[in-house]
Design a protein that fits this description.
Elements lengths: L1 E6 L7 H16 L2 E6 L5 H7 L8 E6 L1 H11 L5 E6 L5 H5 L6 H8 L4 E4 L2 E3 L2 E3 L2 E5 H10 L7 H15 L3 E7 L2 E13 L21 E7 L3 H7 L14 E6 L1 E6 L4 E4 L2 E5 L2 E5 L4 E4 L6
Parallel strand pairs: 1-2, 1-3, 3-4
Antiparallel strand pairs: 5-17, 6-7, 6-16, 8-10, 8-14, 9-10, 9-13, 10-11, 11-12, 13-16, 14-15
Helix pairs in contact: 2-3, 6-7
Length: about 290
């Protein structure tokens, strides 16, 4: 195995750099030929991963959070390179779906292992994602956490942004087409999920299977704000799906239209606005994971 390591030095408030010496020692002990490249700017991981196959690497290892992983997937998609992941961000939500260990050395062992699952990749407007994309409330939270509240860092900035938007956000009018069927909803958010978790551990799509060729779509329709606040903690256990204001659907192509611009996020980063089409990519990607997971 020739391993290309793509690491984000600022993920998890610098956690990637903290754990790297131990990871490097393990790689040297195992005799794994490896090269590490530290990302220097947004989008850098895309170009690094894109060149991996041409440079003779057989696997790429992402060390960072969901945003770093999304970029590595975008670069590696259709190159034939399989991926490993050492979770080192604030959310690490796709890693939860894949059953990856939190301990970095244990995660490295999985990343080097022989079991590789083929997982689906989502596309929206020329951008790929591997975990969850969405429109509305969640995108506004992501924008606030990455903007004015970024100084709080990681999970705290996200949870504070959730509380702010719970008070400020108003539901929007959406027209949604799922595999050719149109519906209209006044909703807080529409999450188009490949993985089960997002938002630092919220189980937005408890039945999602990233290898089944379908998105799990969660539509949270308008409800009294006090009801929304009461429902929020249930997302962490996945029991929000029993709420009458929550719909779960499945499909491989989702179009979302609005009567005014609404932000959209992909794997926690705001990337575009509605109208937008979400589609399961024609390319899957290999991700090393525990053999009993997928």
């Amino acid at each position: 195995m020739r391993l290309l390591i793509i690491a984000n030095p600022i993920s998890g408030k610098g956690y990637s750099r903290t754990i790297w010496p131990a990871l490097q020692e393990r790689l040297n002990l195992l005799g794994v030929e490896h090269t590490i490249v530290w990302t220097e700017r947004p989008g850098h991981a895309i170009s690094i991963a894109r060149e991996a196959a041409d440079s003779g690497f057989t696997r790429a290892l992402a060390i960072g959070g969901d945003g770093t992983l999304r970029e590595v997937v975008q670069g590696a998609l259709s190159t034939g390179i399989d991926l490993g992941v050492v979770p080192a961000g604030s959310g690490n939500d796709f890693s939860r779906t894949m059953g990856l260990p939190k301990d970095p050395l244990a995660a490295l062992d999985v990343a080097l292992g022989a079991h590789v699952a083929r997982v689906n990749v989502g596309e929206l407007g020329g951008i790929v994602y591997i975990n969850v994309a969405g429109c509305g409330f969640d995108a506004e939270v992501a924008a606030l956490a990455a903007g004015r509240l970024r100084f709080l860092g990681g999970r705290l900035s996200y949870l504070t942004s959730v509380l702010v938007e719970l008070c400020a956000y108003r539901p929007r009018n959406f027209r949604i087409c799922i595999d050719g069927e149109w519906i209209s909803r006044r909703a807080f958010l529409i999450a188009v999920a490949n993985g089960r978790f997002y938002g630092c551990g919220m189980m937005i799509a408890p039945e999602a299977d990233p290898a089944d060729g379908l998105f799990d779509i969660c539509i949270v329709s308008a409800m009294p704000r006090v009801s929304l606040v009461a429902a929020l903690p249930k997302i962490y256990s996945g029991t929000h799906v029993t709420n009458p204001h929550v719909e779960m659907r499945r499909g491989s192509c989702v179009t979302v239209e609005t009567d005014a611009p609404v932000q959209c996020q992909a794997d926690g980063e705001v990337v575009t606005v509605c109208p937008i089409e979400f589609r399961v990519s024609g390319h899957s990607i290999g991700v090393a994971c525990p053999a009993d997971r997928i």
